Amino acid sequence: MTQLPAATPRRQQASACLPQTISGPIDxxxxxxxxxxxxxxxxLNDRDIAxxxxxxxxxxxxxxxxxxxxxxxxxxxxxxRRSNHVQExxxxxxxxxxEEAGLVQRxxxxxxxxxxxxxxxxxxxxxxIDLAPLLNCLPExxxxxxxxxxxxxxxxxxxxxxxxAAAALARHARRAAQICASSLEGxxxxxxxxxxxxxxxxxxxxxxxxxxxxxxxxxxxxxxxAPEDLAAGSTxxxxxxxxxxxxxxxxxxxxPSCHDxxxxxxxxxxxxxxxxxxxxxxxxPRKKEDNRPSLQMEQLDPRQIVALWADLKALPDxxxxxxxxxxxxxxxxLEFSGFLDLDRxxxxxxxxxxxxxxxxxxxxxxxxxxxSIKSPTAYLKMMLEKYRSGKAIAAGAVRMNRPLIRx
Length: 407
Description:
Layout: H1 28-37, H2 39-42, H3 46-57, E1 71-72, H4 76-82, H5 88-100, E2 105-107, E3 115-119, E4 122-130, H6 132-136, H7 138-172, H8 181-196, H9 202-216, H10 236-244, H11 261-264, H12 302-309, H13 315-318, H14 326-339, H15 344-354, H16 356-368, H17 376-388
Antiparallel strand pairs: 1-4, 2-4, 3-4
């Protein structure tokens, strides 16, 4: 737990205390706000903050002067009333934690009571909770707050890098047909989960970016690929069969050439095996029927798709060219909703309730905000409920009486 230097710490000499570095007036609520921002580093909870606020509220009105007496001598019943009725025994524990954090100093009288000491009607001293340490440690609190802001900015930067890497991976998914779809979807989901974390380490970001760069470096499959590019996938049996079909180099006397003694031991087969020498031919398994629900968009006008695609903001980054027809649009919607971890049947119901133009607007809106959405399925259900109740959704892009296609 971070401890701030108190004005007069216990069991220390006065010479060990930090001198007062602030001489001007201080806004008490500004000091309290700094404590709130750093309460986790100071080891304080909400009740501790409430008790500190109650002690600050009983001081004289106006800015506080660190050179004057700033002691709260209000009784525990009054502090309990001002701190939203925190129990008196809890107030003692809160004041102990505040003193351990270096924000206050408890000045005890002989009988334990809290009261001011007056001379000629003027208060010259008091027994209670001295708030001078809080006023003296404002520079340390401000430094801690600035460090917290810097940490948050670094975390935001790391989450942005994760989001950019995940977006680049999603764009590459259209071109990398040789990558397993399930592995690719899992890596995108990993990036989305990392982007949602409140704390991301640099090692996690570098590891994820390395995995993404490795996939992005994979060349696209080409039908004109050279045979040597496919050598890694060949087997020993394939190479043996190819060597067996290589014609022998004969010498002028009709025997095998001395430059090809290895070929002399090869024997040409009677016929070329179409099944690579396998005694049993491979039988391709039948494709299982896909009983999953699908979208029916075959009758859509491609010009309407192009017109709507120009109004979208996020989807064109992943699909620069609009789908060429309704079938391609339905396939794109179902695949991209899977990347956003949306239920397939729910996406189909969304298209049925909103119409495919509004469904695309909703999908585009969720794509822009996917880093801040914890449960995409629950978020989409909530949007559908609002739409059925007559409210606008997707930042006003989808309304009940709005035409589906402009123009």
